[in-house]
Design goal:
It contains one helix and five strands, in the order E-E-H-E-E-E. By secondary structure, it is mainly beta. The chain has one domain. Bound molecules: zinc ion (ZN).
Length: 67
C-alpha cells in the first residue's frame, strides 16, 4: 500500500508518516488534520493529508551496485 510522506519545512528532508493510504481514498481524507514527529529537526509538524504525498512502497528500492 502506498505510504503517506511529508517534507520537513526546516531541513527539506522526507518524513515517513507510517500511514498507508490507497490513492482512491486520498481525496476523501485530504482535509484530515495530521501531526507528524519529525526525525530530522525533532519538532512536530502539523498539516493536513493534502500536504503530504503518496509513495509506492511496492516500487523496488534502487541500490547502487557493489564494487
Ligand atoms: Zn522537521
Amino acid at each position: 500500500m502506498p505510504q503517506l510522506m511529508f517534507r520537513c519545512p526546516y531541513t527539506n528532508k522526507p518524513i515517513r508518516s507510517g500511514i498507508g493510504l490507497v490513492p482512491e481514498n486520498l481525496s476523501t481524507v485530504s482535509d484530515y488534520p495530521i501531526s507528524v514527529q519529525c526525525p530530522h529537526c525533532g519538532r512536530q509538524h502539523h498539516g493536513t493529508i493534502a500536504d503530504g504525498c503518496l509513495t509506492d512502497e511496492r516500487s523496488p528500492t534502487l541500490v547502487p551496485p557493489e564494487e
